[in-house]
Every structure is written in structure tokens, then in C-alpha cells.
């Protein structure tokens, strides 16, 4: 596949390069051809113009000479005698700078008028032309050596010899003609010659040594297209014969080197002469070749730019397609792995499902066959329950996961209380933790929004998944804790960022597996894990739920040391129509070994109107309580952690009770189910329990009973008190109240006796047998004698049981009344309307106390 | 009988709490409520006010507070609680005013009980 692509790419690149090079080469060649063609055309036009100018010049020169001759003849014609005519002609020839002047006879005889002797070369055409009455020029020699141009006009004069002349011929120097025409390229590199039809030079410039130009053409010219000198020669000669112009480009051999030249040949008037104009192509060629160099350069540059562009596009494309190929490959591998994982999961699952299913089937069979053996059936049912619960868990996970994977999971957002969630979780995981004897703790800090909008079921699921994993993978005696913390959310004031940490000191997770932990159907390999039940879906479900909530989950773990999961999620705050959570301004003492917990609990207590101090150990708590007691600034309530290092909660409570008595209520705070330690705790003087975590509302609801009825102990207590057979004297003037009291007391087995007022009460007690009554319930306001007076009277009696417990029964709950009760010698008081539980408890307390004291004294 | 209880409920008496206190013995509860009517007539707190005998007024109001509390006649219990508190604070005028407001309620409840 990859090879194919590479081959294709290589092929494409080559094709593109070749096409580019071909196109640009063609372009360059074509342009070169076109430009040289254009240069030739331009050259031809230029040469023609040049030749025309020179031939015009030539024409003008000849015509001026002819006009001069005509003028001479006009003057001469005024005379008829030979002498006068020749004189005028002589003078005129001198004046018009003619070299010679002569008469030509019809047979070509020359009779000199002025200047040296004259000979004519090639006289036939000259004479023929004159005979036909046209002026003509020809080349001749003066005095046998100086080359002159002969200009002849038809004229009939009587010559010296008596003959009639054919023409009058004037001459001028060839060199002066040359100068006049500026044939030599002094200012340009163009030069011209004038030749005769036979190729002999009339005037040669640029130092041509050969005498015949046509011979020169034949010998030294070579053509562009293998044309040789001979062909040029023929072309030129025929053009000359026909009297046409001729233009050609050729190479001229000079000193063995070829030079490009342009030749233009045109016939000159009044003569058998031809003007040859030659332009060396050197400089024009330079321009052209410079131009074509530029073309080539441009073409190469364009070619390179196009190629580079192609290359860049190709490379980009290759990169993208490579990336796609890699992605594709990854996706394919992932798909394969997912399939493998699923099939592995299925085989594991079928085993996992079959095991509890087999247990259920087997146990059902056993139960059926032992239907009469109650013990056996119960045992079987218990096992069936366990197995079916396990099976249900498995199926729930699988269904949940398939729901998530098909994208059908939705969150049902409602108002939830973090406190309820934590309470719920604690109660769910407690049995498992207790079973594995693990150390469990809960911390909360900075919870400023207890109520939020969220899906409580899903949040619970997340926490339970994390916690049950922690429990599952932490050995017995290990530590597990959960921390909840809030901070400002970046999403704004309506939101709060909730952090949840679940830490354990379990077996940890290998770093390889850490990356895969949130994927479906994965479980770390290894002996330890193989023993642990589970679908491997829990973490995937957890991750999906947190994703759906828009949160994140991170895992930090060291193999063999422990694991921490950290969930961060932003939740909308629920506006809480919170009732006024305000309690009296009591001094509280919080004792816990976790400083964070102490601080956050103290802050929460202060928020609900209390004053809080805290300390980290039982020992220091005892010291602090003692000091406060000595300063008569007793704490109102002490919150004591059960699980303290060193002196634990119960020991601390016991010590506090020993030092400062029973007045200060001590509440135990615990993340555990306290049912097992309750009895021990109560014996140690603990009056109630508050479950961790200590949310503000937890504290408020836990402490409220003490504020409402500071005399009543925690409502948690519902102990049944055995007071049957006890005799109680009830001093109560009101019938209804008596009836109520009687009925209540009888309901808990007490024998009440009625005294209508204080006086009767005191009398009845005074006349009773020693120890007949166990206690007295005393109404305070009675006719004849009040409760206070009756109590004082009884206490004054000289009998050993005068210290009988007297408990005030009053509708007044004012502290001054209570103070008065105590100062008049009563032991305690209960409020009306009467609560059987409260009365029973108070009675029991004082009766048992007194009895023990009494028995003790008797023994002595 | 249950009609009477319903009527008492509508007058604010916490019949259920009362019954609970009487161990769900409704006849006993009814008997006690009957006794209360006698009690209430004997203990004329208003008369004490008019005679200027505030000490007696406290005593009587106190007794009524205890009784109404035990019988869960909540409106009267609340009223007498307040009266006792005000008398203790030496605010007899305010106490009397509350009593005057309270007596029509008491009459209604007694009327209901005497049916």
C-alpha cells in the first residue's frame, strides 16, 4: 500500500518535472526563434531604409552634376562658334569643380574640353544610354590613374574634328562621391560598397581587398541553413540582373572566424551600379542573445517556482495523507483491540455470570431437597441472596455501560444536598469497610454551598464506584478516606467547583494501566486482581458520568503504595431558602486529629452562631476542659472524635467526666456506624453522636436539641428503663395532672401515690416506712404548702431516707425556677407537659444512684 | 366521639399528642378533658385580676398552663404560658389583655367539651 503510494508519488513528480522542462524549453526556443525572426525583419527594414537614403543621396549628387551640365550647356548654346563654346564650358567646368569635361562622339571618341585625358571603362552601356537620349554615368580614369565618375548628358555640338558630338561628359572624383555618400560606417557599424554589375568595386569601404564583390560572396559566405557562397552568389547576381533589391543574412568568414552579417543590395539610378549595404550582426545579435538569455533565465525561474509550488503542495498533501494513514491505522488497531477486549470481556463475563448463577441454581436445588431443615434452607437462601445481588450488580453495570455507549445516558438534574449524598455514601460503604477492618475517614473543607443542582443518583454512583474500588483493592487494615472541598468556579458566581478525592493505601495501579483505567472492559492483569470480582466497567461508567457532568477525573497512583482519584466538577448552586441556622452563642470544643477538619468544623460552628475552639488530641482536650472548668467558663458542648491517636474518644470522655463531672454534654463524631460502641460510649458519659462529615447543617441539626431543651439529653437515646415496682409519691394538687402522671407512671410499672398538696406529701412521707418510697415527684405550686416548702420539710426530717430523690414537676422552665428548685433541696426537675421517657430516665438515674449509695452505706 | 375530637382539632387542640400521652386511651382522655372544664371554671384568673390579687392570678394561670399542657390544649397552653411569663415580668396589664383575648377561645373549647 505504502509502496504503491510512494511509487505513484515518485512517478507524478517525474512527470511534472519533465512536463515543466519541456513546456519551458519549447517556450524558450519558440521565443528565441520568434525574436530572431523579428530581429531579421527589423534588420531588413532598417537596411532597406539605409540603402534608400544612400541611393537617394547618390541620386541627388548625380542630379546636381547633371543640372550643372545642363546649365553649362544653356550658356554654351548662346554661342555657335567652337571657340566661344569651349571657353564657356572650360570656365564653367572649373567653376563647378569638375575634374574633366569632354565631348563624346557617337563612335566613342573622346575630345577633351577641360582637364586631363580621360578613359572610360565599359563604354557600351554608357554610349547606348546616351544614344537613346538618357543621361548616364560610368567609371573612368583621368590621366590614366585617377578614378573618376563620368556624367554624360546628350548634347550635339560641333567638335574640333568637325564631327557632331553625342554627349557632353563631365567627371568628378570617385573619392569625393564616396565622401559625399558617407559610405563608411564611421558613426555606425554599417558600411556600404558600390559595385558594378560584374562585381567589381566602384567604391569599396571597410578595407575590402578583393576587387570583385561577387567573388568575395562566393568565397567567404556561408549560410544559416547550410547555404553556401555559391547559392548566395547566384541569388545576388540574378537579383542584380533583374534590378531588384536583395536582402540576406549570412556568416562571413573573417580570419577563420564566422561573423553574422546582414546584406542589402539595391540598384543605383543612372548607372549599372549597385549599392551593397552590410551590417555586422554582432551588436544586434548581442541584444538578441541578451534578450534570449533573459528569456531562459525567466523560464528557468518560472519553472523552478512552479516546481517548488508543486513540491510544497505535494509535501503538504503527503503529510496530510500520511497523517490520515496513521490515524486510520490507529483507528483500525483500536477497533481490533476493542473487539478483542469485548470478546475477552464476554468470556470473562460468561464465567462471572455463570458462577453466581450456578450458585443460585445449586442452592435452590439444595434448599428444595432439604425443605424441612429450616437451618439448611435459611443458609441456602442467604447464599442465594448474596449471589443474586452480585449478579444484579454485574447486570446493572453491563446495562449501564451499553446505555452509555449508545449515548442514551442523561442526567436528571435536581436540587441535591451534599450532606445527604455523603451521609448516604457513608451508610452504604460502612458495612464493607467494617468487614475488611479498614480505617475510614471523611474530610470536608470550605463547603460554602451545601445545596447544588446535580444528578444525585449519578454522583452517588461515581462516589460508590470509587469507594468500592478503594475498598476492594485495599488490604485489611488499610486506610481509605474521602475528601470533599469547594472553591470558586471559573464558570461564575452561580457555580461552585466541587473537588472530591478518594484516597486509599491499597495495591495501587501500574503506570501502564493508569492510561487505560477509564476504558471499558479493562482490568489490570495479575494474580491479585484475578481474585477480585468485577466487570471492569465501573471506572468507564464513572468516567462517562463525569464527562456528562462536564467534569474531569484524574488518577494518581504508586504501585503498592496507594491510589488517589480526584474528581473536579462544576455544579450550579441551588439557592437555599435556608432556615435561620442560628444556635446560642455557646463555647464549643472540637477535638479531632485532623487539623483541617477542626478548622472547617470551627468555621461552620461560628457560622451558626457558636464560638468554637479546637484541639488535636484527647490529652490536650482534657487539659483544656479542666482549665475552663476551674475558671467557671465550662464548654457548653464538646465534640469529640472517636478515632483519636493516643487517648481515643471514649477514654477522653471518661477522663473529662472524671475531672469535671457530668454537666458538659459530650458528643462523639464518627464516620463509622456507632451501634457497636454506643453502649461503651454512653457508659463513658457520651450523650449523643454526630456523623461525619460535619456539614454546617449536620452540626446544626445535631446541636439543635441541646439548644431547644438544654436539660434534655440527646434524643438519640430511647432506652427502656426498668422501674417496675417502684413506689413514687406524687405531690400534685390538680386532678388532671395527677391522672396524667399516674397513668404514665403506671405504664412503666411504677406504683404512684397521690398527695393533694405539699403538706399531705410531707406527712405521707414522714409516716411511711423507711425506704417505702423510691422518689417524690413534686409540683411546685400547691395550696396549703408549696413544693419548695414540702421539700425543705422533708429534707429536715430526721430519718435516713430524708435524702430521697425529689424531682420537681413544673410547667415553668425558667432557669430561676430551676435554681430555686435546686437550692430548696430538690435533685432535678422535669417539665410539664410530662414526657414519660424523660420522667422515667430522670427517675431511674436518681433512684439507682441513691440505691447504690444506700446499699453502700448499709454495708458499712 | 371522634366528631368531638375532630371539632377540638379544628379549634387547635393537639388531640393526637394528647391521646398519645394517654396511651391512646381515648375515654380516659375524654374524662380528663371533662375535668378540665370544671377546673377552668373554678380557676377564674380574670376575677383575680379584677380583685387585684396578682399572686393568685399567677398561681391559677400556672395551674391552667400545666393542665392545658398535659391535655395538649395547645392554644390555651400557649396563652397561659405567655400570661405567666408576663406576670412574672410584672406586666399585669399586658397579661390581662392576653387573658381577655384568650377567654373566648377557652369558652369555645369548653362549649365543645360540654356538648
Please, could you describe this protein's structure?
The complex is a heterodimer of chains A (860) and B (115). With 860 residues, chain A is an alpha/beta fold. Helices cover 49% and strands 21% of the residues of chain A. Chain A is built from 23 helices and 29 strands. Chain A starts with a helix and ends with a helix. About 1% of the residues of chain A have low confidence. Chain B is built from seven helices and no strands. At the A-B interface, α19 of A face α3, α5 and α6 of B.
Alpha-carbon Rg of chain A, integer: 69 Å
| C-alpha geometry of chain A | rod-shaped
Distance separating the two termini of chain B? 10 Å
Mean pLDDT of chain A: 81
The residue ranges of chain B in which pLDDT falls below 50 over 5 or more consecutive positions are none
Q: Give the helix proportion of chain B (percent range).
A: over 70%
Describe the biggest sheet of chain B? none
Helix content of chain A: 40-55%
The proportion of residues in beta strands of chain B is: under 5%
Strand content of chain A: 15-25%
Order of helical and strand elements of chain B: HHHHHHH
Q: Largest interface by residue count?
A: A-B, 20 and 24 residues
Specify the number of helices of chain A: 23
Coarse shape of chain B: elongated
Largest sheet: number of strands, sense, barrel closure of chain A: 7 strands, mixed
* Rg measurement of chain B, Å: 14 Å
Amino acid at each position: 500500500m505504502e509502496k504503491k503510494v510512494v511509487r505513484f508519488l515518485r512517478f507524478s513528480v517525474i512527470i511534472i518535472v519533465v512536463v515543466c522542462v519541456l513546456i519551458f524549453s519549447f517556450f524558450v526556443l519558440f521565443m528565441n526563434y520568434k525574436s530572431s525572426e523579428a530581429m531579421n525583419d527589423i534588420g531588413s527594414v532598417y537596411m532597406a531604409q539605409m540603402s534608400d537614403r544612400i541611393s537617394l543621396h547618390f541620386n541627388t549628387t548625380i542630379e546636381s552634376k547633371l543640372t550643372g551640365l545642363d546649365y553649362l550647356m544653356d550658356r554654351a548654346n548662346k554661342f555657335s562658334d567652337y571657340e566661344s563654346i569651349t571657353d564657356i564650358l572650360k570656365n564653367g567646368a572649373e567653376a563647378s569643380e569638375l575634374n574633366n569635361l569632354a565631348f563624346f562622339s557617337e563612335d566613342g571618341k573622346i575630345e577633351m574640353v577641360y582637364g586631363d585625358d580621360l578613359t572610360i571603362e565599359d563604354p557600351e552601356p554608357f554610349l547606348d544610354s546616351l544614344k537613346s537620349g538618357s543621361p548616364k554615368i560610368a567609371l573612368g580614369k583621368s590621366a590614366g590613374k585617377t578614378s573618376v565618375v563620368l556624367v554624360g548628358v546628350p548634347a550635339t555640338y560641333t567638335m574640333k574634328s568637325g564631327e557632331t558630338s553625342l554627349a557632353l561628359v563631365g567627371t568628378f572624383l570617385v573619392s569625393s562621391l564616396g565622401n559625399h555618400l558617407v559610405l563608411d560606417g564611421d558613426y555606425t557599424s554599417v558600411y556600404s560598397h558600390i559595385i558594378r554589375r560584374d562585381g567589381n568595386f566602384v567604391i569599396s569601404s571597410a578595407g575590402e581587398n578583393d576587387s570583385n564583390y561577387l567573388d568575395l560572396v562566393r568565397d567567404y559566405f556561408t549560410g544559416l541553413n547550410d547555404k553556401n557562397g555559391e547559392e548566395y552568389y547566384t541569388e545576388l547576381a540574378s537579383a542584380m540582373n533583374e534590378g531588384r533589391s536583395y536582402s540576406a543574412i549570412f556568416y562571413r568568414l573573417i580570419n577563420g572566424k564566422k561573423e553574422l552579417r546582414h546584406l542589402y543590395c539595391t540598384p543605383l539610378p543612372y548607372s549599372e551600379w549597385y549599392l551593397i549595404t552590410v551590417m555586422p550582426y554582432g551588436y544586434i545579435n548581442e541584444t538578441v542573445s541578451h534578450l534570449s538569455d533573459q528569456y531562459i533565465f525567466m523560464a528557468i525561474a518560472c519553472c523552478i517556482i512552479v516546481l517548488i509550488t508543486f513540491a510544497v503542495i505535494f509535501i503538504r498533501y503527503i503529510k496530510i495523507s500520511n497523517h490520515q494513514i496513521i490515524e486510520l491505522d490507529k483507528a483500525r488497531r483500536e477497533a481490533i483491540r476493542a473487539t478483542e477486549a469485548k470478546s475477552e470481556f464476554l468470556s470473562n463475563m460468561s464465567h462471572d455470570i455463570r458462577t453466581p448463577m450456578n450458585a443460585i441454581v445449586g442452592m435452590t436445588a439444595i434448599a428444595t431437597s432439604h425443605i424441612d431443615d429450616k437451618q439448611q434452607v435459611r443458609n441456602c437462601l442467604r447464599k442465594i441472596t448474596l449471589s443474586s445481588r452480585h449478579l444484579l450488580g454485574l447486570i446493572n453495570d453491563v446495562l449501564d455501560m451499553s446505555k452509555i455507549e449508545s449515548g442514551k445516558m442523561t442526567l436528571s438534574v435536581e436540587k441535591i444536598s451534599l450532606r445527604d449524598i455523603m451521609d448516604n455514601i457513608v451508610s452504604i460503604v460502612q458495612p464493607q469497610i467494617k468487614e475488611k477492618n479498614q480505617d475510614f475517614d471523611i474530610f470536608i473543607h470550605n463547603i460554602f454551598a451545601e445545596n447544588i443542582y446535580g444528578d444525585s443518583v449519578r454522583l452517588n454512583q461515581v462516589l460508590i464506584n470509587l469507594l468500592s474500588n478503594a475498598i476492594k483493592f485495599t488490604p485489611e487494615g488499610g486506610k481509605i478516606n474521602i475528601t470533599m472541598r469547594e472553591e470558586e468556579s471559573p464558570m461564575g458566581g452561580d457555580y461552585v467547583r466541587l473537588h472530591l478525592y478518594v484516597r486509599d493505601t491499597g495495591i495501587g495501579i501500574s503506570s501502564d494501566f493508569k492510561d487505560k483505567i477509564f476504558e471499558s472492559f479493562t482490568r489490570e492483569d495479575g494474580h491479585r486482581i484475578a481474585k477480585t470480582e468485577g466487570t471492569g466497567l465501573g471506572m468507564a461508567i464513572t468516567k462517562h458520568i463525569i464527562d456528562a457532568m462536564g467534569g474531569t477525573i484524574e488518577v494518581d497512583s504508586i504501585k503498592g503504595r496507594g491510589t488517589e482519584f480526584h474528581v473536579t466538577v462544576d455544579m450550579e448552586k441551588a439557592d437555599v431558602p435556608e432556615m435561620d441556622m442560628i444556635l446560642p452563642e455557646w463555647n464549643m470544643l472540637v477535638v479531632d486529629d485532623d487539623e483541617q477538619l477542626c478548622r472547617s468544623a470551627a468555621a461552620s460552628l461560628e457560622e451558626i452562631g457558636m464560638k468554637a475552639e479546637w484541639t488535636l488530641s484527647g490529652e490536650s482536650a482534657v487539659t483544656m476542659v479542666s482549665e475552663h472548668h476551674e475558671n467557671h467558663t465550662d464548654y457548653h458542648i464538646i465534640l469529640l472524635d472517636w478515632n483519636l491517636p493516643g487517648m481515643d474518644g471514649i477514654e477522653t470522655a471518661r477522663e473529662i467526666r472524671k475531672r469535671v463531672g457530668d454537666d458538659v454534654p459530650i458528643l462523639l463524631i464518627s464516620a463509622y456506624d456507632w451501634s457497636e460502641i454506643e453502649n461503651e460510649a454512653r457508659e463513658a458519659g457520651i450523650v449523643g453522636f454526630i456523623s461525619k462529615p460535619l456539614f454546617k447543617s449536620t452540626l446544626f441539626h445535631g446541636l439543635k436539641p441541646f439548644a431547644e431543651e438544654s436539660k434534655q439529653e440527646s434524643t438519640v437515646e430511647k432506652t427502656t428503663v426498668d422501674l417496675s415496682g417502684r413506689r413514687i409519691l406524687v405531690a400534685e394538687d390538680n386532678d388532671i395532672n395527677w391522672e396524667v402522671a399516674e397513668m404514665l407512671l403506671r405504664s412503666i410499672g411504677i406504683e404512684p401515690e397521690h398527695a393533694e398538696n405539699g403538706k399531705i406529701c410531707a406527712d405521707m412521707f414522714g409516716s411511711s416506712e423507711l425506704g417505702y418510697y423510691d422518689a417524690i415527684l413534686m409540683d411546685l405550686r400547691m395550696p396549703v404548702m408549696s413544693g419548695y416548702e414540702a421539700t425543705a420539710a422533708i429534707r429536715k426530717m430526721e430519718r435516713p431516707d430524708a435524702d430521697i430523690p425529689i424531682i420537681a414537676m413544673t410547667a415553668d422552665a425558667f432557669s430561676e425556677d430551676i435554681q430555686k428548685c435546686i437550692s430548696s433541696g430538690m435533685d432535678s426537675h422535669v417539665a410539664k407537659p410530662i414526657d414519660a421517657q424523660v420522667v422515667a430516665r430522670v427517675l431511674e438515674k436518681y433512684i439507682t444512684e441513691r440505691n447504690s449509695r444506700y446499699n453502700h452505706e448499709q454495708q458499712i | 366521639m371522634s366528631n368531638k375530637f375532630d371539632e377540638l382539632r379544628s379549634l387547635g387542640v393537639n388531640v393526637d399528642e394528647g391521646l398519645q400521652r394517654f396511651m391512646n386511651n381515648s375515654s380516659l382522655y375524654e374524662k380528663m378533658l371533662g375535668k378540665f372544664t370544671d377546673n377552668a371554671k373554678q380557676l377564674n384568673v380574670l376575677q383575680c385580676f379584677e380583685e387585684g390579687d396578682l399572686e393568685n392570678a399567677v398561681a391559677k394561670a400556672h395551674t391552667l398552663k400545666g393542665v392545658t399542657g398535659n391535655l395538649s390544649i395547645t392554644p390555651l397552653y400557649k396563652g397561659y404560658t405567655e400570661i405567666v411569663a408576663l406576670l412574672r415580668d410584672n406586666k399585669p396589664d399586658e397579661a390581662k389583655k392576653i387573658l381577655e383575648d384568650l377567654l373566648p377561645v377557652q369558652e369555645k373549647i369548653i362549649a365543645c367539651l360540654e356538648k
